[in-house]
Amino acid sequence: MTQSYSVAVIGLGSMGMGAALSCINAGLTTYGVDLNPVALEQLNKAGAAATGTDAKAYAADVDAVMLLVVNAKQVNTILFDLGLAAALKPGTAVMVSATISADDAKAIETKLNEHQLLMLDAPVSGGAAKAAAGEMTIMASGSEQAFAKLQPVLDATSAKTYNIGTEIGLGATVKIIHQLLAGVHIAAGAEAMAMAAKAGIPLDTMYDVVTNAAGNSWMFENRMKHVVNGDYTPTSMVDIFVKDMGLVADTAKSLNFPSPLASTAYNMYLNASNAGYGHQADAAVIKTFSGITLPGDEA
Amino acid sequence: MTQSYSVAVIGLGSMGMGAALSCINAGLTTYGVDLNPVALEQLNKAGAAATGTDAKAYAADVDAVMLLVVNAKQVNTILFDLGLAAALKPGTAVMVSATISADDAKAIETKLNEHQLLMLDAPVSGGAAKAAAGEMTIMASGSEQAFAKLQPVLDATSAKTYNIGTEIGLGATVKIIHQLLAGVHIAAGAEAMAMAAKAGIPLDTMYDVVTNAAGNSWMFENRMKHVVNGDYTPTSMVDIFVKDMGLVADTAKSLNFPSPLASTAYNMYLNASNAGYGHQADAAVIKTFSGITLPGDEA
């Protein structure tokens, strides 16, 4: 099945690069699209069929497109403003894996349908390491045909694909609720580590205790390592959670539903971004707590 | 070493029972104390040297006492009001494993010292299953002598003992900061699952997605199972987190430090308790979200 299957992966950031490499590893004919020449070069060396800055160049050749860009605006720009949707063969499957609102997902579906294209509303999770290993978690909704057409891509990139239902928007909502947890967990980790610093607890000890006890979370273990090491080089940055917690807030409003913890965490990320930490690792939300000395701070 | 080593475990709830069973399994001469005759009978059958409602009966025989009661008030009542401390041999080690404030821990130390008793400030984590397996996580502070005297008990009951330092109160503070995370994670899980219910996401699917993705936490995985199953039989109840998040608030105030997420979660538990869910499983904090139908609700 995979012999003649071609996919274009658009957006070669930490998740997209991993997904594209996984497609190559699975034997799919893989095209890579990004504006960053370093990423294109990396994918070329790994065995991409071709790479470039304009996805339309590969539109006639592909069975599927996987979009791993940052937000709905980028999805719309690539598909509609730059004309990719119009250039794709009818029946091509478009897997939208950016974290976007359910409303945006539905609007994109409507426009893709006008071009006889299949859509899978398919956000992802797992981090860069899992993406590179072909072990992302995919939370997807869409038609049976969309799932079927994308099966080789889902097999190549994910350890587990959840079929949430046929309605476009359900995948987006599950991802946003997932991000509520991810965002609260990072902010809670920062709050806890900041309080430990204030109390004179060695942060490496606090980290070890939590990661071996019931207070642990995936995000605490992954992100508070930045705090212990005093290294805020981003794999995912504060401004990503400003965006994602903003989507949580939009979703909560649209559902007319309270989100006390997510709202609080959103304010913490906003404050961190406004303090100048937007482009640092998301764990830098801890830097908004004053009156403490953290690893890496000037003595 | 363990042949002639005797320990009294006081408080045979879910953690204390597990710890006492682990002491028996490790070959320690183990006395069990509780007010609940069912727990005493269970420990007797498992091979306790003796069980009863008054710890003083075993005071002359034990090398160590492990207190796994609910709060500082109970610790003080047992040790000082009921006269256990006065009855223990000088040099006996008292391991205080209740979740209490650093100030309470220091006050207990002062009074134990008057009786020439060693204190280990040693809260625990891990849940009932880990306690029964002798695999609790212990976060301890105290003198070298206290650690040494309690080594057989620490070996019997824990997979990992952290030595936070010599100062009594550090163990208590680490546990309280750990509970900040545990309490926020349960409340965040409830907020996320409630929002999923409102959005029409099947909760078993939402649970599966999160537990296989980066939004997972130990508490989400353990406690949101109650929500999916519609079963709020408590292993740990809402009122425990009313108490523990109250300790977080006290600690934050004493450190003059903000705790935006912990404060929000504390209010959620208070509200749940006042709504009548105090003695249900802590996941019942989700029941304070209105306008949704949860598994187990009347159709």
Main sheet record of chain A: 9 strands, mixed
How do the SSEs of chain A run, as a string of H and E?
EHEHEEHHEHEEHEHEHHHHH
Strand residue percentage of chain A: 5-15%
Using the coordinates shown, work out and report the CATH topology of the largest domain in chain A. Answer: Rossmann fold
Structural class computed from helices and strand pairing of chain A: alpha/beta
Extended strand count of chain A: 9
From the N-terminal CA to the C-terminal CA of chain A, the straight-line distance is: 60 Å
- Given as residue ranges, the uncertain stretches of chain A (5+ residues, pLDDT < 50) are none
Rounded mean pLDDT of chain A is: 96
What helical percentage do the residues of chain A reach? 40-55%
Q: Based on the structure given, which CATH architecture of the largest domain in chain A is correct?
A: 3-Layer(aba) Sandwich
Question: What can you tell me about this protein's structure?
Answer:
Two copies of one chain form a homodimer. In chain A, helix 8 (170-199) packs across helix 10 (218-229), helix 8 (170-199) packs across helix 12 (260-277) and helix 9 (203-211) runs antiparallel to helix 10. In chain A, 58% of the residues are buried. Chain A starts with 5 loop residues before the first strand and ends in a 22-residue tail after the last helix. The first copy, chain A, folds into two domains: 6-167, NAD(P)-binding Rossmann-like Domain (Rossmann fold), CATH 3.40.50; 173-288, N-(1-d-carboxylethyl)-l-norvaline Dehydrogenase, domain 2 (Orthogonal Bundle), CATH 1.10.1040.10. Chain A is α/β, with parallel strands linked by helices and 299 residues long. Helices cover 52% and strands 14% of the residues of chain A. Chain A is built from twelve helices and nine strands. The radius of gyration of chain A is 20 Å and the shape is globular. In chain A, helix 7 links the parallel strand 8 (136-142) and strand 9 (158-165). The mean pLDDT of chain A is 96. The longest helix of chain A is centred in the middle third of the chain and has 30 residues, at 170-199. In chain A, strands 1, 2, 3, 4, 5, 6, 7, 8 and 9 form a nine-stranded mixed sheet that branches.
